[in-house]
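Input chain follows. Return structure tokens only.
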Amino acid sequence: MTHEFSIVESLMVDLVGQLQSAEVEQVTEIHFRRGSAFSEDALRQAFDVFSRDTPLQGAELVIETVNLDHQCVCGREQVITSDDLIGHMFVCPACGMMREVDEAHDLELLEVIAV
């Protein structure tokens, strides 16, 4: 969860700086896209913490989840979730082959709607 908090903190610090430069007083919605292994709970908790006393406080948090479809060399197809990972590694349950899957941990800021 610490990993997710640090990513959200970095995004929020940059965004708040941009909002203040643009003299935005209030954001009503903020949209994120997260990889299937990026904890939605951690994202929501970090957003609550880092949005306090900023134009983001009280904004609706909209989260889109992108599932990572994986086809192993053995032929098994599967959607990778956080339950399937050991750190950033995925182990195919059919053949035991390991693969690094950093993209499952991605977080992308899509849209900010301000008044």
